[in-house]
Design brief:
413 residues; alpha/beta; Immunoglobulin-like; Aminopeptidase; six-stranded mixed β-sheet; 17 strands
Amino acid sequence: MCRPAVGAGSAFSLFSGLLIALCLLCPVSVRATEKPDEPLLAFSARIVGDDARSRVVVDFDDKPEFSVHYVASPERIVIDLPTTAFGFPAEDLAARGLFKDIRYGTMGEGSARIVLTAQRPVKLVSAEVQKNEDRGFRLVLDAEITTKEKFAELVRTQSWKSSELKQSAVIEGLPDGAMSKDGVFTIAIDAGHGGIDAGASGAVTKTPEKDITLAFAKILVEKLNKQTGIRAFLTRSNDSFLSLSERVVLARQGKADLFISLHADTLGQKNIRGSTVYTLSDTASDKMAAALAARENLSDQLAGYSIEVPQPEIADILLDLTRRETQAFSISLANRVVKSFEGQIGLINNPHRFAGFQVLRAPDIPSILLELGFLSNEGDEKLLLSEEWRDKLTSLLVDAVLKYRGETVAGGG
């Protein structure tokens, strides 16, 4: 059996090479083509993604059959192919995003293999062959994070039969549409910042934003889960770091119908106070919104998770849905939050604003970012630390969600 060719990953020791060879050895069917003696040609490849989801694309001169398997210790995705000549530069498939190492090459007579070694437990949500407009076909693999338990289940329940070579595979279905079909209205509550990313800090008490948002999020989830037909969950339940992309993926994996991200930022103008509701837009409503979005979007860089991702590819990975419809639902929710707060909770001027917040970019989940108040203002800081005010604001937020669900989801508004 031939050793897989090394991509741009780390050095491949003889010991680890033997391990992979022993762990992954399995029979693979030959290429189903009119020319079985000629290998497929993989003439180009590319990978895009981040620490929560990634897409691998390999172009072939003919339609490839393939099979997918999972191997543990470390977590790997194995793609078995018929005889294949890999004719693209190694740097074209250099490890990035979810994967820390990518190897490919001949496995023996009639077979080849791509091995994707992951940074963490991972799963394929889809794997399919698509026809190229100009030449040949492309194998498209969409991967995203999963839990250790779910990865172990994938390893345990899979079959290694050679007859499983195929031309497409929907590995795990994704939620479709802005509303869930399970009869339960599900809400992801995202406590902003966490772990190494403390966020802003109080002007007087120096309380970190990450603690305030988590305290609000826990109370909000508790109140929402008391409502009939509603299920709410936290994207983070402790002082842990989540990248912006992870927050979106966790919401989608939880089949959320709404995504609410809680924050309590600071401003240079200490006299500005009050709550603000943000929805997504590539063009900011004002300079303050643009500045806040830019600062929030730095969260990943602060924790060393900065990875540039071409936006069109990532949109394809998530879902090919109409953003316009989802955005209309987001605006509807924002308007209901503002109406619920009016006369009860202090709001800044023009309380519904919009900007390019990365955490709001799920194309299929109506999403808002709620600035609870500004820690740069002493009055707001005092309220943000008040259990009584926290209880009042979360109750009003629950009311807004109930009205959104009753009027929008039911078709009444």
